[in-house]
Specification:
single chain, alpha+beta, Immunoglobulin-like, five-stranded antiparallel β-sheet, five-stranded mixed β-sheet, 2 helices
């Protein structure tokens, strides 16, 4: 199988055997304006293959335990509270050159300053051979509407043709779920809704920055007004004392 040339899918080679991990299918829930979108309500499939230096699948090997973890788009780990993992379905076994993860994000982009997330898959700590691969970045949402027919067809097409796409990205759409009969929302309106949500969150972030700036300016104005008030009171007190002294002097 040809190797993926997509630049954001990173791999680490083993110096001795030159084996490497590669993502052969990344079944996201939505692709909006060339951006990958996943819902936190449903898992998605991430298929990992193992290949040699010539790009051929390595099928004869001992079972290898793989572990997935969530990263920000810049590669930094996503920290969460104890008992609240960033992803579910973080373990799979590589056998006959393939491992299939069913991963579900538990973190929202909207709660992490609009940041996107990657999934890093690597051999577990007990394995002396270090192999890893990192997925493309995805934006996460809670509720996402899809056209079930189109999604299923896309996923079926990806399964029928396991070879990488011409772009090398190895992406497919994962069936998200059925909508109620007669729902007027179609694929185009769903795309518009997702993009509108992104725009709205951007507007919320900009408004938050502006509100913070206004609060800072207001606090500074209060400080200046308070200082002016105290200065005025001191001047008034000094003027009163001078007046009393003058009157007393004239009486004497």
């Amino acid at each position: 199988m040809p190797t993926s040339d997509y630049t954001t899918a990173l791999t680490e080679f083993v110096p001795t055997a030159s084996w490497r991990l590669q993502i052969t299918n990344h079944a996201v829930h939505k692709i909006c304006n060339d951006e990958l979108v996943c819902s936190t309500l449903r898992p998605f499939q991430l298929t990992i293959g193992m290949f040699d230096a010539s790009g051929h699948t390595v099928e004869e090997h001992e079972p290898i335990h793989l572990v997935a973890r969530c990263l920000f788009e810049n590669g930094q780990p996503v920290h969460t509270l104890p008992g609240q993992p960033a992803i579910l379905g973080d373990r799979a076994t590589l056998a006959n050159g393939q491992a299939v993860f069913r991963i579900q994000f538990q973190v929202l982009s909207s709660q992490r300053e609009g940041k996107r997330f990657r999934v890093e898959v690597a051999t577990d700590e007990d394995n002396p051979v270090r192999l890893k691969v990192i997925s493309e970045a995805s934006r996460t949402l809670t509720k996402l509407f899809r056209n079930p027919g189109g999604a299923t067809a896309a996923a079926a097409a990806a399964q029928a043709s396991p070879s990488p796409s011409p772009t090398g990205r190895n992406l497919s759409l994962s069936a998200f779920g059925k909508r109620k009969s007669g729902d007027p929302m179609d694929e185009a309106s769903a795309d518009a809704e997702v993009c509108d949500i992104h725009g709205l969150w951007g507007e919320v972030h900009r408004n938050s920055v502006e509100i913070a700036r206004l609060k800072k300016d207001q606090a500074e104005m209060r400080r200046v007004l308070q200082a002016l008030g105290e200065y005025r009171e001191r001047r008034s007190s000094c003027s009163s004392i001078d007046t009393v002294d003058t009157v007393s002097f004239e009486e004497d």
